[in-house]
Structure formats: structure tokens, C-alpha cells
Amino acid sequence: MIVAGIGCRKGVSLQEVLAAVESALEPYDLSPDSLSGLATAKLKAGEQAIIEAGNKLRLPVFLVDGPALQLVSLRGLTRSAASLSAAGTPSVSETAALAAAGQKSRLLGPRSVHGSVTCAIAVNGEEP
After folding, report:
1. What's the whole-model pTM score?
2. Of 46, 61, 89, 109, which is least surrounded by CB within 10 A?
3. How many H helices and E strands in the chain?
4. Which stretches in the chain have pLDDT values below 50?
């Protein structure tokens, strides 16, 4: 399982989310077709661009609740004061990806930043 975790400011566009996902996948020679899903914090459920990106890519969007984000927060690679303040986690994109990818998940690297959107890629087990 490969999951792209998404964090963003309010009101981002579909194009920004899609560009962030593609940008985050590029260093690992992965394409959106290799993804099993997108993930974000449950508090981002109202961000239509994330839901639309899942629809466009034909992927489920996992909405991860606060306790699940907290369980994996020590495995994240980035510490953002803004994310800690807004979501109570060091990085929404990293922790959402880790939580959605499963118990044995790991990040391929730190989140990437694309304008107002962050994206992190997590894999479960030995993938890829």
C-alpha cells in the first residue's frame, strides 16, 4: 500500500493538490497510478480540493482522526509549528500518510511543499 498524505491551507485548488501529489511522487519514480489512496486529517474533510483529487485520481480519501495521527506522530520527519497549532500533530501530511498506510508503514522521505499544499508518501512494509 502506498498513500499520499495531504496537508494544506484553507481553500486550496484541485490543481494545487494534484501538482503537490505529482511533485511528491517524482523523487521516488512513482506515478499517481501507484497510489492506493490519499489521506488527510479528519479536520480537513471540508477541503473540497482534496476530495476532488481523490475522485480525479480514482482513489479513496482516508480521513484520519486526531488519535490516529497522534499514534504515529513520533515517526514523522517534519516538525511544523503551524501544523502543531492547527491540528495537534507535527505534520498533517506525514502523519495522515503513515496512519492510513498501516501499522508497519514508513515515510519514503519528508513531506514536500508545493505552494499551500504539503504532501508526504508512506508505504506499508517493504514497498516499493
Report:
1. 0.91
2. 46
3. 5, 6
4. none
